[in-house]
Amino acid sequence: MKLLSTIILALTLLCSCSSKKKEAELLELSKPEWLKSRPVSSAYFYGIGTTPKVGGSVFYEEKAKEKALADLSKQISTKISSEQNLYRMEDNKGVYEYYQSRVRARSEEFLEGYEYVDKWEDLSNYYTFYRLSKSEFYARKEQRKREALQLSLEKYQQAQTANKQANYVLAMELYASSIDAISDYLNEQTSVETTNGNLDIYEASKDALSQLINSLTIEFQPKELYASSNTKIKEGAALLAVQCQNQQAHNMPVQFNYSGGFLITDRFKSNAMGQVKSPALEYANKSEETLKASIDLKSLGRQITRNLIVRQIVEKQKPATSIISIQLAQ
């Protein structure tokens, strides 16, 4: 009796396995062409998503859709990157990663307009197929570029107004915003039509920002200090005048470096009068020490923009400097 039961069970399992094998073979025959060979088209980008059939059908169907759209997004990212050679300065890794994150963000924006095409499933996995019209992609891309150029021009014009009003930090922020608006198109033409003719808005904004930074000057008053050995020179013993285009410049970041030792606080900003007090100093017994002040370009870049490409432009400029001598009183 036991032998008979064992034989029946074995036959049942064999039939079951055979049935599943036949089902798998039949399913394989019904596999669509887009799974057998990834489609390539001049009219569409394609995205294919695959996920195990785990959980309810609603769950794994949604997961497959997410993967298909991610596949679409990856293709668009590759397309955007291939059309735009990476705009880098000194091959800075931070700028490279920043650029790549912008490419990813743009590719996700361009996904609007995708279409469902087909689905298929076997015993273990669920597959789904989506597409995006290339003509729609390029039309959307051109529209966004036109909008970016218009925004860039508006920021540039606002920066010029701020500059005329001697609001130099605001002018720098607006020139930075002008460049930021078109950062995705820096390897393409960035010209716009204005009432005064054609203007390369990127070059104009970059040059204006650079000129503002290079017009910054700083100067100590007085240019020399005298102190006795082992004394403390109080804060504000000297004043640093910060100017831009020969006008007082407020809210400009300045960094100090003291040859006589460590400064507890070495970074300050100019006040409403365009002045910065010298920091408190410990003077030992050397015949001379120096206190050097510089426009802090790194802080200035962070102050006016979050765009790493613009920060690189700022940091590449030559900072204005001034040095005061501290000498031993006779």
UniProtKB/TrEMBL annotation:
PROSITE patterns documented for this protein: PROKAR_LIPOPROTEIN
Keywords: Lipoprotein
Protein name (database record): LPP20 family lipoprotein
